[in-house]
Structure formats: C-alpha cells, structure tokens
Amino acid sequence: MMTDASPSDPVALIAAMGRRARDAATLLALAPTEMKASALRAAAQAMRARADTILAANADDLARAQAAGLSSAMLDRLALTPDRIEGIAGGLDAVAGLPDPVGCPIDEAERPNGLRLRRVRVPLGVVGIIYESRPNVTADAGALALMAGNAAILRGGSEARASNHAIHACLRDGLDAAGLPGDAIQLVPVSDRAAVGAMLTAAGLIDIIIPRGGKSLVARVQTEARVPVLAHLDGINHLYIDRAADPAMARTIALNAKLRRTGICGATETLLIDRAYADPAPILAALIDAGCEVRGTDAVRAIEPRVAAVDDADWDTEYLDAILSVALVDGVEGAMGHIAAHGSHHTDAIVTEDAATAERFLAQVDSAIVMWNASTQFAAGGDFGLGAEIGIATGRLHARGPVALEGLTTYKWQVRGAGQVRP
Fold it and tell me: How far is CA 326 from the centre of its chain?
C-alpha cells in the first residue's frame, strides 16, 4: 500500500490514511448497492483462488505465535483452515446479498404546517477497527463497513500480520474490480503500538473506533480514545439451568456453550444450576470428561468430586479457555441476581421448559443478547442473519448486540417544504 507519510511516523501515517479514507467515504456514501456488492463478491472469489497463499501466510503467523508462547485459545483464534477460509469468503458473499441500509427510511411524518419529515439511514463515515488475533475480522469488518457506505481503517494485531495482509489484498482486488477506490479499505502497515494511539486521537479523520480483542486492548481504547467508541470489554456469559430444564437438552447445550469454541466471546464462562434441578451430576461429569476444568462452590464439589475449588475472582473472569465456574442458585431469581452482579451484559441464556420462567428471564436480564433453550455460541452476526459482525456491542448507545450493517449507519432528517417560514 502506498502512503504519503513514513511508516516510522505513526501519527503522520494515520493522518494520511485518514485523509484518503475521508475522500473514499465521500464516494462510497453515494455508491450504488450493486457496485458495493460486486466488490465483495469479487473479493470472495479472490479469497477462494488464493486460499493456498492465505494458508501459507497463516502458517507463518502460527509459527511465530507458537514461538511467542500464545495460549491455545489465542492460537485457535488465529488459525485458518480451508473450511474457515471458505467460511470467510461465504461471509463476503452473504454481506453482498444483504439489503443496503444506506438511504432507507426509518420513519416519515407530515407536520400540521405542511412540512414533510423523513429520517433516513446514512453511513457513519470513516470507521477505525482495532483488533487482535482473528484474521477473519479483516474481511468481516472491511465488508460490513463497505456495504454500509463507510471507509475502513483496519489495524490488526501483529500476531496475524501476514494473514491480514493476504486477506486485505483480496479485498483490494475486489474494490479494483468494481471500480471503487482502493482507499475504501485500508490496512495499517505497521505493528507499532503508537499507530493505535494515533487512531484513538484522530478526531475529524476517524468517526468511530471499534475495538475487538482482549480486555487490555479494549480498556486502553476506552481510556485513551478521543473518538467515539463502540465496544464490549468482556464476554462473561452465563448459562442458567432451571429446575424445569429438559436434562438431555441441558447437557447438550452446556457442552456446546462452553466447549464448541472456547476462545470466542460467545462462549459460556459461568454455569448456574437451580438447586431444585433434579440431577446436575451428569452435566458436570460430561463437561469434565470432555476436557473442561470445572471450578465450583462447595455445594457443587459435593456433587462431583473432580470439581476444583472456585474463588471470588472466577465469577468475574473471561477464561476464553476450557475452564468453567459453576454455582448452585435459588431459582431464576438467584440466577438473575448472580448475572446482575457478575455479568458483562454480553450474552446470557436459560434452559427451561417453563415458558413463564423463560419470559421472565428474557425480560429482566439486562444483556445485549438473552437466549432461551439455545447455546450462547450463537451470539454472532452470521447466526443472526446479519451476514457477519464487526463486534458485539454491550453498551446502551447507538447499537447493541451484533453490530452489522445497520449498526454501521446513523441517520439524518430530510425536511421538504413549500415555502414555510417559522412565525
């Protein structure tokens, strides 16, 4: 990627990238839907054609990460396979087929004086995405930003440097093929942490920052940013097994919610079981037999002797590993109290056959995603029919839950008159 600033000067580098992104965003805001979709479909084709190149780049990243001692969960986030590459390419195709939110009316009204008001969706402008480990974010974030009419500045983690560049090259090919500016999706070409700081203070050049990574990264972004931030800090997700849960369903969901992929933010980290649930022992045994380290209270350890002792810090820990904290609670009220005290407002689920209890849980648990009889691992934009996601937002402003196309737009009022003046 050509720049008009030296990579040794991160502030000047980000400023130059921001100016080019702003120019590109002006064009993208008016780009026809089919042109944006065509770019994404061409990028997907490029990814499939270059799968071997991407896998080779990823192998280099994995070798460096293993030598650096990254955890198994981080290595899983970093690793690409042919199936995962096809999944990324399929995600680009899926986003290309989604309804374009730009210009869509939100509501309309006519005032008594004849003024006609219309609120329509418009792009945010320039979106900065700062992320770690997961090379798929390069494609997901770039695709969603583009389809929503935004320019993107991507800053991936150093551990995925080669993978990110290989994927980004496919995105650039897609933009070129569709006749869109290459600066619509830019990848920061340096690993210097100062580049992150430059992005966080690039007010006027970057309109919003979306961090996607570990707690330390997100905390830094939220502390230092002079640009609006859309983020979640932790994925401390809970699965509550109610007294009225179907035993087979409870066991299956518990295993999937914790162990399907332990390194994703939708993984369950705490299991809560109603004291009145008939037989929790098979669930605990199944988790341990599947390789999960279970940490529990004295009451839980009395049920299954292989359970390790839990401490207070466990209830507030996002393990991102095959570790699970477990407690017995006094019904749904006890579960909701525990979640309120220790949850991160990300994703929480209940397993029960009692519809009234489930509806109470769905209504009262204050999380971005609340589930009934489903694994927390479904907390993803693709599984919500959004094509992909740029992250899970747990705050209350602008967007909440999986952030996809609609979450990457804002709105403006269009007012049409016939000569009215205000008295």
Answer: 26
Report the distance separating Cα 261 and Cα 322, nearest Å. Answer: 9
Rounded Cα distance, 296 and 285, in Å: 13
Give the per-residue pLDDT at 270: 98
170/392 Cα distance (integer angstroms): 25
Q: Which two tokens stand for residue 44?
A: 């997907």
- Domain coverage including residue 141: 10-230+403-416
| Residue 239 CA from chain centroid, whole number | 20
Q: Would you say residue 4 lies in a domain?
A: no
- Same domain assignment for residues 313 and 407: no
Q: What is the pLDDT of residue 263?
A: 84
Of the candidates 158, 217, 220, 219, the residue with the CA atom closest to the CA atom of residue 187: 158
**Cα 34 from chain centre:** 26
pLDDT under 70: residue ranges of the chain? 1-7
Secondary structure tally for the chain: helices H, strands E? 14, 16
Pair 122, 28: CB distance under 8 Å: no
CATH code of 55's domain:
3.40.605.10
The CA-CA-CA angle for residues 148, 149, 151, to 5°, reads: 110
Residues 353, 246: contact at Cβ < 8 Å? yes
Which amino acid is present at 188?
V
Query: How far lies 52's CA from each of 55, 140, 175, 343, in Å?
Result: 5, 20, 21, 41
Domain count, the chain: 2
CA distances to 130, 144, 171 from 217, in Å: 9, 22, 25
pTM score over 0.85:
yes
Separation of alpha carbons 414 and 420, rounded Å: 15
- The β-bridge relationship of strands 237-241 and 208-212 is unpaired
- Both 185 and 305 in one domain: the answer is no
Q: Which of these, 195, 347, 169, lies nearest to 257 by C-alpha position?
A: 347
Q: Which residues pair with 315 in a beta bridge?
A: none
Whose CA is closest to 146, among 201, 183, 200?
183
- CATH number for the domain that contains residue 274: 3.40.309.10
Is there a domain that residue 397 lies in? no
pLDDT at 110: 98
Same domain, 247 and 226: no
